[in-house]
Amino acid sequence: QVQLVESGGGLVQSGGSLRLSCAASGRTFSNYAMGWFRQAPGKQRELVAAITSGGGTNYADSVKGRFTISRDNAKNTLYLQMNSLKPEDTALYYCAADSFWVIIRGTRVGYWGQGTQVTVSS
Question: Residues 6 or more apart from 114 whose CB is under 8 A from it?
């Protein structure tokens, strides 16, 4: 079992920045690929960014150049640095853990956090 707890969400103005954190406990964090997903009201959940156990990354086109995913295996923590935020980034953000290709497909992901709300005002 892996337990995931997100933090760092909040209300920010358009153009601002936030850093989300996801603290992991349970099985060895470094063994898992990790991902950040988001879901806005009335929309499907989408993958924002993914990172392999070795640090390789993948981003949705909508966030490339603005968001950075990273991980600190010594602290069992995943991060998402979000810059140049836009109102369309408003969503509930979730972290997830599984193999890299399960994260990329976004289906049957084994472990999810409870989510943290990000709201970007115009």
Answer: 4, 5, 6, 94
Split at pLDDT 50, 70, 90, the class of 14 is: very high
Nearest CA to 20 out of 69, 80, 70 is that of 80
Q: How far apart are CA 98 and CA 8, in angstroms?
A: 22
DSSP for residue 89: G
Taking the C-alpha atoms of residue 88 and residue 114, their distance in angstroms, rounded to an integer, is: 21
Going by C-alpha positions, the residue among 16, 15, 20 that lies closest to residue 69 is: 20
Q: What is the pLDDT of residue 113?
A: 97
d(CA 110, CA 99): 9
Within 10 Å of residue 39's Cβ, how many Cβ atoms? 14
Residue 65: C-alpha distances to residues 70, 82, 91, 99, 120 (Å): 14, 10, 19, 24, 18
With bands split at pLDDT 50, 70 and 90, how would you rate the model's confidence at 9?
very high
Helix (H, G, I), strand (E, B) or coil at 78: strand
